[in-house]
Specification:
single chain, 731 residues, alpha+beta, Beta-Lactamase, Alpha-Beta Plaits, six-stranded antiparallel sheet, five-stranded antiparallel sheet, 20 helices, elongated, disordered C terminus
C-alpha cells in the first residue's frame, strides 16, 4: 500500500492518465482509416463491376447490329450452308475475342451453318433465344450457359432470318458472346493481387472465374460461402471467403433480371487494410516512445521537488485533458525538475503536433477522396456517353465528330487529335482535333512508321524530354508532354489517339502522362472498337448492293433509286434519263472464247462505264450482259449524246485475254427520259427496253431513243411489252 501511495507511483499514474486520451485518439483514427479503406475497396469493386455490366450491354447491342446486318446478306438468305459458314467464319475472325461462335439454325432447331466446324448434328431447339426469335420475329437474348459446340461459357443472342417472299422465319442467326471478357477486364484493371471475379448461376454452376478458370469453370459450388451470400442478397456488397478460401470485400449483382446469373468482384481484405495497419503501427510506436520518456523523467525526480512540480504538471495535464493543447510548465529548479518539466512539455508538444497533423491529414484526405470520387464519377459518365454515342453512329466520320466533342470534355485542359489509317494503309490522316486555337500541331498526315505507339503496339509517353523518345511525326515545337495511343481492334491498327499537355495550362510535365494514360487507353479502345464495327457494317452494306463480278450496283439498288428519282422529279419538275445497254452477240462470244473470257469482257466494259459517268450518275448491272445507266437531271438530248459517246468508247476497247485478242465489242443502247416516256419507274424502264429491242432489230451497234408511251400504243403499267431479253434472242 505504501508503494502504491508513493509520489513516484502517483507521478507515473498522472503521466499514463495524460497519455490515455492520445492513445484513444490514435485507435479511433485507426478505426476510421480501416473504415475508409474498406469503403474504397468496395467502391473500386462496385465501379469495375458496373463497367463490366456496361461492357456486357454494349456487346449485346453490338451483337444486335451485327446479326441484323448478316441477316440481309445473300450468303445467309441464299440457303447454301457452306457459303453461310464461310461468311460466319470471316465475321468471327474479325472479332475472335468478343464471340465464342456464330451460327445459323434452321426452323427445326438443327444447326445449318457455324463459324466453328460442327461434328455431327446439333439440336438447339430447346434454347430460349431460338424460341423467342421464332415467336417474336425479332432480336432475342437467351441464357448464360456453356455452349454445346464451343464448350465455352457464353451469352447467346438470336436474330430471325425472314423469307423475302413469305415473310416467314427461314432460320435464326445466333451469336455466342464469350464470357471470357470478364476475366480480361480483371487482368487489365489496376487491382491488388488476389483480386477475383466470379460469374455463376442460381444452381452454383461457375461460368467465369479469374484467376484459375481451369480449376473452377463448369463446377457446381452451391455450398460455398460466397454463393450463399449472393443468393441471399442478390445485389449489393459484403465480405466473404472466396472459392479459394481468401477473405475479400465483394460487390455483386444480377447480370440480367430474370436470368438468375450473378457476377461477383472481390478485393482481398488484407491488401485493403495493409496501409492503414502500417500507419497504426508507426503511430503506436511514436506514442510508446513519448510515454517512456515521460515516465523516466517522473521516476527520477525527487519527492520534495516533485510535489510542487507535480501540482504544476497535474494542472497542465488537466488543461490538456480539457482540450487545451497550449498548456506547458516552466522549466526551472533542480535538474530533476527541469527534466520532468521538459519531458512533459515535449510530450505535450508532440501530442499537439500529432493531433494537428492528424486533423489536417483527415481533412486533406477527405477533400482528396471527395475530389477523386467526383472526378472518377464524371469520367465514368463521360465514358458512358462516349460508348453510347459511338454505338449509335452510322459512319466513321460521324464517330470521329462525336469523339471530338466528348474528348473536349474528358480532357478539358489538354489538346489532341485523332488520326485514322487510310485505305492504302500507308498514311494516317487527321480526322478530328480539339483544344485551343493554335495549340494543336499542324500535322495533317504522316506514315505509320513515324509513330512509336504504332511500332510498339502500346501507349507511348513523352514527359519533359525524359519520359520517352518524341515521335518523328511531331513538329519541332512539340509540347513538353504528350501521349500517343494506338486504336486497335481485332489485332488491326485503325489509327492513333494523340493527347498533348496544353502549354498554357501551367502544369508540371512530371506525372502528366500517367494521369492521362489510363483514361486515354480506355477511350482509344472504345473508339477502335466502334470504328471497326462501322467498317464491318459498311463492308456488309457494300456487299448487299454491289454486283460481285463488275462491282457495279445491282438490280435491287437500281430499283430503289429509280423509284426515288421518279418521286424527286415529280416534285421538282427536273428531267432525268435512263440508258439500257446490251453487249452484242455476247452468247456467241462466250461459245467461242469461253465464260472466263466473257467475264473479262464484262469487267472491262464495267470499268469503261464507271470511268464515263459523273459523280451523280448510277451505273448498274441488271444481269448477264445487260446494264442500266441512271442519269439524274439529264435531258433526253443529253442522255442520247452520252449514250453515243459510250457506244463509240466501247468500239475502241482493246480486249485481250491470256495474250489472245478478243476482237471488237459493240453495244446496243436504248434511251428513255422523264417525263417524255413515262412518270413511273416501270414505264421508263419498259420504254428504254423497247428502244433497245429496236436497236437490236435494226442491226445492233446503235443508240435508239424510245417513243412516247402514247405513240407506242403500249398498255399501261402492269402489262407486258418487248424486253431486252427478247432482243437478245434476235439472230
Amino acid at each position: 500500500m505504501r508503494l502504491l501511495s508513493s509520489v513516484r507511483v502517483r507521478s507515473l499514474s498522472v503521466v499514463l492518465a495524460a497519455v490515455a486520451p492520445v492513445a484513444c485518439l490514435v485507435l479511433y483514427s485507426a478505426v476510421n482509416e480501416h473504415g475508409l479503406a474498406e469503403r474504397e475497396a468496395q467502391e473500386d469493386a462496385v465501379r469495375l463491376l458496373r463497367v463490366a455490366v456496361s461492357e456486357q450491354d454494349g456487346l449485346v447491342q453490338a451483337s444486335h447490329q451485327l446479326l441484323a446486318s448478316m441477316a440481309e446478306a445473300e450468303e445467309v438468305t441464299g440457303g447454301d450452308p457452306r457459303r453461310a459458314s464461310a461468311l460466319l467464319a470471316r465475321v468471327l475472325a474479325h472479332d475472335p475475342m468478343a464471340y465464342a461462335n456464330l451460327g445459323l439454325i434452321g426452323p427445326d432447331g438443327m444447326v445449318r451453318a457455324s463459324a466453328i466446324p460442327v461434328q455431327g448434328t446439333v439440336d438447339l431447339s430447346d434454347r430460349r433465344y431460338f424460341q423467342l426469335a421464332l415467336e417474336t420475329k425479332d432480336f432475342s437474348v437467351g441464357e448464360y450457359q456453356i455452349g454445346r459446340i464451343t464448350g465455352k461459357p457464353s451469352l447467346n443472342c438470336g436474330y430471325p432470318v425472314l423469307d423475302p417472299s413469305s415473310g416467314q422465319v427461314s432460320g435464326v442467326l445466333y451469336a455466342a458472346i464469350d464470357l471470357g471478357w470478364f476475366g480480361r477486364i480483371l487482368r487489365t484493371a489496376r487491382l491488388p493481387p488476389d483480386a477475383a471475379i466470379t460469374v455463376f448461376d442460381s444452381k452454383g454452376l461457375v461460368l467465369v472465374r479469374e484467376p484459375d478458370p481451369g480449376e473452377w469453370v463448369g463446377r457446381e459450388i452451391d455450398d460455398a460461402e460466397l454463393v450463399e451470400m449472393v443468393l441471399e442478397k442478390r445485389d449489393g456488397i459484403g465480405t466473404s471467403a472466396g472459392l479459394d478460401g481468401v477473405e475479400r470485400f465483394y460487390a455483386f449483382r444480377t447480370l440480367r433480371r430474370g436470368d438468375g446469373v450473378y457476377a461477383c468482384l472481390g478485393i482481398p481484405t488484407v491488401e485493403a487494410f495493409a496501409e492503414a495497419r502500417a500507419a497504426l503501427f508507426w503511430r503506436l510506436l511514436a506514442l510508446s516512445v513519448a510515454v517512456v520518456i515521460a515516465l523516466a523523467a517522473a521516476w527520477v525526480g525527487s519527492e520534495a521537488l516533485v510535489l510542487r512540480r507535480y501540482r504544476e504538471l497535474a494542472a497542465a495535464a488537466k488543461r490538456m485533458s480539457a482540450g487545451d493543447l497550449s498548456g506547458r510548465v516552466e522549466v526551472a529548479g533542480p535538474a530533476e525538475s527541469r527534466v520532468a518539466a521538459a519531458a512533459f512539455n515535449e510530450m505535450a508538444e508532440r501530442i499537439s503536433q500529432m493531433l494537428l497533423t492528424e486533423e489536417s491529414a483527415k481533412s486533406e484526405l477527405a477533400a482528396r477522396v471527395e475530389g477523386l470520387v467526383a472526378l472518377r464519377t464524371r469520367e465514368l459518365f463521360l465514358l458512358g456517353q462516349l460508348v453510347e454515342h459511338l454505338q449509335a453512329c452510322l459512319s466513321p466520320r460521324e464517330a470521329t465528330d462525336v469523339a471530338r466533342h466528348l474528348l473536349l470534355q474528358i480532357f478539358p485542359d489538354d489538346f489532341g487529335a485523332i488520326y485514322l489509317m487510310n485505305a492504302s494503309r500507308n498514311l494516317l490522316e487527321r480526322a478530328a482535333c480539339w483544344g485551343e486555337a493554335g495549340a494543336v500541331p499542324d500535322v495533317e498526315t504522316f506514315p505509320p512508321d513515324d509513330c512509336w505507339a504504332l511500332r510498339r503496339g502500346q501507349i507511348h509517353v513523352v514527359e519533359g524530354g525524359a519520359g520517352g523518345l518524341p515521335c518523328p511525326h511531331l513538329p519541332p515545337e512539340a509540347p513538353e508532354a504528350c501521349l500517343c495511343m494506338p486504336m486497335m481492334a481485332h489485332g488491326e491498327a485503325l489509327g492513333v489517339l494523340h493527347i498533348a499537355m496544353n502549354p498554357g495550362a501551367h502544369l508540371s510535365a512530371a506525372g502528366w502522362g500517367e494521369s492521362r494514360a489510363r483514361l486515354g487507353d480506355t477511350v482509344a479502345e472504345q473508339l477502335g472498337l466502334a470504328l471497326s464495327n462501322l467498317k464491318l457494317r459498311e463492308t456488309l452494306r457494300d456487299q448487299s448492293i454491289r454486283d460481285p463480278l463488275t462491282r457495279l450496283f445491282n438490280r435491287r439498288y437500281l430499283e430503289e433509286n429509280l423509284e426515288r428519282e421518279c418521286a424527286r422529279s415529280s416534285r421538282s419538275g427536273r428531267p432525268f434519263a435512263i440508258v439500257v445497254i446490251d453487249l452484242d452477240h455476247f452468247k456467241a462470244f462466250n461459245d467461242t472464247f469461253g465464260h472466263e473470257a466473257g467475264d473479262v469482257v464484262l469487267g472491262e466494259f464495267a470499268r469503261l462505264l464507271q470511268s464515263s459517268v459523273r459523280g451523280s450518275d448510277l451505273p448498274c448491272r441488271l444481269g448477264g450482259e445487260e446494264f442500266v445507266l441512271l442519269l439524274p437531271e439529264a435531258s433526253l438530248e443529253d442522255a442520247r449524246g452520252r449514250a453515243e459517246e459510250l457506244r463509240e468508247s466501247a468500239n475502241r476497247l482493246a480486249l485481250v485475254h491470256r495474250g489472245q485478242s478478243l476482237g471488237r465489242t459493240t453495244i446496243s443502247l436504248g434511251v428513255s427520259a422523264f417525263p417524255e416516256h413515262g412518270r413511273v419507274a416501270a414505264e421508263l424502264l419498259r420504254a428504254a427496253d423497247a428502244a433497245l429491242y429496236r436497236a437490236k432489230a435494226e442491226g445492233r451497234d446503235r443508240v435508239v431513243v424510245a417513243e412516247r408511251v402514247e405513240d407506242l400504243g403500249v398498255p399501261e403499267v402492269g402489262t407486258k411489252g418487248p424486253t431486252a431479253a427478247s432482243a437478245r434472242s434476235l439472230p
